[in-house]
């Protein structure tokens, strides 16, 4: 970093938990249904209706909080956050204020490309709340009404708030990637940003060193970012913008005009633009929701949750490096694909006894096949066991890597075993006599190559390998090279 | 405990209530009386009383994550001042809608 400032970033992430029904009522949470077909008296705030907590939402929230290394208080409760907005039918949102279900956790981020050192990002809290509805401005009608769809109202959200521990847009991106991966491994959310299952708001400002000492620029909350890439770009833009504004005006945090503001990311223009802000947080007038009773959690419950988490990404990366001797980069690529692919890899590596070779094949051949077809490893028709058989043949010298690829493709196309696919391709091991005859013929036909090699230019033998392969595609280039050199030596 | 006229004005704004000067006067006095009455509670010695988050001594009331039928759309929209058979219609929401 050569900039004369430090970037300070904290992220608020809203994750939609994958429950079938809403947080406080039995309406479906399915995405994409016709507007206002998934509502009931509870979620649209009819008088006399009463919310009842969804057990699964609490379980998923606790699971995530434990995986984020949070402390789980013995007791948590629900509060009303009051504000008026057309997409909030009750006039308040049920959320958590002073007794959230979890606090003081951390998520460790790292970068296999080494752009920053691994470090824990502290989590202030993760709490449950209900989502609001969706308002759409009627473009056709111009300045007419806004239309409100309340299907989403009451959907369970887990809000995860980080401390401002992130020091660059790259770190912010890494935090989001790691959080999303963790949520995938925990199977608590589908994390689909397009469908709003994962939403990110960022708080950012700069600490600038000046001859008079360090100063801080006013904090800006950035919203409306629809992808992790957009978050990274918006933060890059915002850091530069804040520095330029500070150079121009000298306005610092807390001074007149230095209060916190909200800006939205404009994806088309690639800039942040000012947004009208809602009421100050002190005006939300939180108070305990009398309709909902508190929830208690015992130490034993938390331990049971912890025991059931399974191996999480950070631990898995470490195990792949230690047990299978793969690089941090390879471990990262494999783990990022999800638990199922990692299971495939470990089975393959165990059977063929070569972690690096297994990693290469999975990352190049298997993943390419899956990506080309947009399918998951569950639909990959060659089992780890069968692929291991193929890798053993390559290691044993029966097949070259490139012929091995042809065999794998044939296995995938036809569903055949390794041996059947090899027979179909006409691949059979070339016996030693056949190979000697072939090499002898090649040497006789290429006196110039023989001469060059004799004079020490061993590279010249390469020309023969191509010729050998065109005469018999089954020959092993390494063996051809070795045998030709041996024969020339004897000449 | 008295409440100021300014505080009542702010609260009425947050509650989207438009109060006339006379109403503001009445409300300030009435709210002041209510708060003063509740203030009586502070005379009690609560040092040995556990704080509570809810009036009922009940916790952990859950329902299973089962989907139940929702309201028919027509029924849901029926009481809205304005709708278009699909959505509620409200005066234009500008900004971050």
Q: Which tags fit this structure?
A:
heterodimer, A: 491 residues, Arc Repressor Mutant, subunit A, nine-stranded mixed sheet, 15 helices, B: 97 residues, mainly alpha, Histone, subunit A, 2 strands
Helical element count of chain A? 15
Major protein interface: A-B, 57 and 37 residues
Shape of chain B: flat
Count of spatially separate domains of chain A: 3
Indicate the mean pLDDT of chain B: 89
Radius of gyration of chain A: 31 Å
Question: What is the number of E strands of chain A?
Answer: 17
Regarding quaternary structure, what we see is: heterodimer
Q: What would you note in describing this structure?
A:
The complex is a heterodimer of chains A (491) and B (97). With 491 residues, chain A is an alpha+beta fold. Chain A contains 15 helices and 17 strands. In chain A, strands 1, 6, 7, 10, 11, 12, 13, 14 and 15 form a nine-stranded mixed β-sheet that branches. In chain A, strand 13, helix 3 and strand 14 form a beta-alpha-beta unit. The longest helix of chain A is centred in the middle third of the chain and has 22 residues. The N and C termini of chain A lie far apart (63 Å). The two termini of chain B are 40 Å apart. Chain B has three helices and two strands, in the order ααβαβ. Chain B has a domain of 39 residues: Glu-tRNAGln amidotransferase C subunit, N-terminal domain (Histone, subunit A), CATH 1.10.20. The chains are: A alpha+beta (491), B mainly alpha (97). Chains A and B meet through strand 2, helix 1, strand 8, strand 9 and strand 17 of A and strand 1, helix 3 and strand 2 of B.
